[in-house]
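Notes continue from the previous slide.

Worked example: a multi-chain complex. Inputs as given:
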Amino acid sequence: MGLNEKSNAAILVTTAITFGWYFFTVMTDQAATTDFTSRLWWTLGVYTALIITISIVIAATTDTDDEEDFDERDRQIEQRAEVYGSYIQGAGLIGLLYIVTADHSKFVIAHSILGLLVFSTLVSFGLRFYFYRKG
Amino acid sequence: MVKSTRITNNLRQLRFMAEEMTQAELARKIGMTRQTIIAIEQGRYSPSLEAAFQIAEIFGKPLTEVFQYNATPEEQ
């Protein structure tokens, strides 16, 4: 597995675990509907720190043998996966517009936005993983 | 990418004949990753025209000796 493929897989797993845990704890805790902001920001902070740390560890431990670590195939895979991610974001934004204009609570709005970002990230990085494996 | 390609290649044989050049060495010479060379050899990825010419140049062969296009009967 190359550097980019490993990084993509790590981001996919980290995103799924971090936000899976976050949504599970928030949705099962009644008190979280009114007091969720600190937990949300902590999760985003931990997620960012995890991604940076994992990326550094992967880059330091992957032997690239002086070859390029990014080439035309990586670029094509990235672009193709990004297209699908942006389709989801575009469609999701219309849903978000509805949620915002329908006077929902701050909790619903914030988690709809977060859910959309997480879902599009999972799809985008999941597709990258698939494209790396298949072609 | 995922769509199967009709382009085949002799990269593995050519590497072997070029003093058993490794995939990593070839990758270094054309500025690609070893994973891309593996994908090309396995027919999972068709390189850009520029990369294909670079590969042919490294082995000192014309492009058509390195890569072949298997046309369908309708295309012939």
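Summary box: The interface with chain B takes residues 1-5, 64-74, 76-77, 80, 130-132, 134-135 of chain A (CB under 8 Å). Chain A has a mean pLDDT of 90.
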